[in-house]
Amino acid sequence: MKTFSLPVLLACACTAPVSANAVEAATSENANDIAVIKQIEKEMGDAMVAVDIDKLGQMFADDWVTTCPAGKMATATKESILRDFQSGNDILEAFELGPIDVQVFGNTAIAQGSSTEKRTRDGQDASGQFVWVDILEKRAGRWVVVKGAGSRVK
Description:
By secondary structure, the protein is of the alpha+beta class. The chain has three helices and seven strands, in the order H-H-E-E-H-E-E-E-E-E. The chain has one domain: Roll (Nuclear Transport Factor 2, Chain: A), CATH 3.10.450.
């Protein structure tokens, strides 16, 4: 029994620092990813206000879809949202982000937040306070938004 205990104890003692370093590195990487994702969310709003279609096109994955803000199952695609901003059907005049909570799970992340927006859709005032969730994926080394959902706070 004594001969078995010593190798087990030595193995545990040797792997503990490695595990602590791995956790520390993952935590540091997550903190960096969280900061990047929060910046993406801010820059997304800035690009919508500026009608910067190229920048928005880089932020949304080609297969991006979202449910409409009214909570219906109708979906918007990357192509349709870019077209709506470019044509003036969707105009974001100003926005203010609330707190954003981000959780990273490897190459996938969830960003949840709120915003107050001055906005016009299809010629109608669509301003208000919104809550939203974006799902992001790290593709080719950079984060892109792959899914989203949002709803107006009543």
